[in-house]
Design goal:
Blueprint (H helix, E strand, L loop, with lengths): L7 H16 L5 E3 L5 H6 L9 E5 L9 E5 L8 E13 L15 H15 L18 E4 L4 E3 L8 E12 L1
Parallel strand pairs: 1-2
Antiparallel strand pairs: 2-4, 3-4, 4-7, 5-7, 6-7
């Protein structure tokens, strides 16, 4: 039997639910269970419908996957900040009436609308004090850090990936 976090798991589930709600059908797969790039090509059947969005707890780059604790004074509680990653998988479109990928569509044209949807989804909107609180579970959730894009232009099958860094400040 595995234990479930009473603090972190509900936060990650709330963030994924918010992304699903605000991005809608733009992504065909939403999951917290990460599938690595190498596994996509090894799958016998397309279990992962793309574009796919994964909310990843672990380390990809830099501080992703980390929980940072800062204490400014002995009498002040620690400030906790989770650093997570949104991973996007998408493929370049196939050529109409032929085999292989479309050689005219730049990979950025596939990924930029997906990244913009995530940026828009993580805007605070009408929440108090301009913070995205994930239903009151956190002080604020926002995009911060370096985003990377590995477009399908460099893959023979047209498979691409982008990552978007997310920070979450906990009470």
């Amino acid at each position: 039997m595995t234990a479930t976090s009473t603090v972190y798991t509900p936060i990650m589930e709330a963030l994924l639910a918010l992304l699903q709600e605000r991005c809608g059908t733009l992504f065909k797969t939403y999951s917290r269970r990460m599938v690595m790039w190498e596994q996509l090509a090894q799958m016998q059947t397309p279990l992962i419908r793309q574009p796919a969005l994964f909310l990843f707890d672990g380390v990809i780059t830099g501080d992703s996957g980390a929980i940072r604790y800062d204490r400014t004074a002995l009498s002040v509680p620690s400030k906790r900040e989770m650093q997570k990653t949104i991973v996007i998988y998408a493929q370049l479109p196939e050529r109409p009436n032929a085999n292989g990928i479309d050689a005219t569509t730049p990979g950025g044209d596939v990924f930029y609308p997906l990244i913009e949807a995530i940026e828009s989804a993580l805007e605070p909107g009408v929440e108090p004090q301009g913070a995205l609180t994930l239903g009151g579970r956190v002080f604020h959730c926002w995009i911060e850090g370096v985003s990377y894009m590995f477009t399908g232009d460099i893959d023979p099958e047209g498979q691409g990936m982008a990552i978007v860094p997310v920070r979450i400040m906990l009470p």
